[in-house]
Amino acid sequence: MSWFASDAGMVRKLIVKDWQVYQKQLAVYLAAMLFALGLIGMGTPWMASAGALLLLVLLVVVGSFAIESSVMTERKQQTVPFVMSLPVTPMDFYWGKLLANLVIYLAPFLLVTGGLLALILTTPSPDGAVTWVVVIATFMLVIFCVSLCVAIALDSEGWNTFTMLALMTLIGPFIYWVSRLDGIAPYLKTDDMVWSAPVVGLLGAELAVIAITIFVTSWVHSRKSSFL
Fold this sequence. Notes:
Layout: H1 8-41, H2 45-76, H3 80-84, H4 90-122, H5 129-153, H6 157-168, H7 171-178, H8 197-222
Helix pairs in contact: 1-2, 1-4, 2-4, 2-5, 4-5, 5-6, 5-7, 5-8
C-alpha cells in the first residue's frame, strides 16, 4: 500500500473535524498561555519564573490532551467502526490524525515559542537566551510528535500512557543539561546569539528524531490492508 493518503479531500475533512471538536478547549489553553507570557513580560524574577513554569506545564498538558482526546478516547468510544464505513483508507485515517493533532498542537506551540522570542528580543533580557529557548521548544515538539506517533501506532492505552509519562520525565533533566551545554551556557546572560556547532547539531538531532518517528509510523501503517 502507498505511504500517502489516497484522498486528500477526505484527509482535509478529518483534520477539520478534529479542529472543530477541540477548538474551544484550545482557546482556553491559548488564553492561559497569553496570561503566562504576560507574567514573564512583567520582568520581575518571581513573575518570570511563575510564567515560564506555567508555559511549560501548559505545553505538556495541551499536547497530552490532544493525544488523549483525539486518539485514545476515540478508541475507547469505538469510533473506528464508523470510520470504516466511510470511503477512507488506513493511510487516509493515519495522515488525518497525524496532521490534525499537529495543527492543534502547533497553534499553542508557535504562540509560546514566538512569544518568548519576542519578549527576549524586545526587552532588556539577554539575547543569548534565544538559542536556549529554541532548543528547549524543539525538544517539547519532539516529545509531542513521538507520543502522538506511538499513540497512533499502538492500540494499547497502557503503553501509550507509559510513553507519555516517560518522555515527560525527561523535560527537567534536558533543561538542566542544555543550560550547562558548552555552546549555550557561556552566552545565556549575554546579548550574543551564537549558533555554535553543539547547538546546530542538537537541533538537527531533534528534527531527525521527529522525521524518523513519522517515517517509521508511516511505514507501519502502509503495511496495513485494513483498520484491524
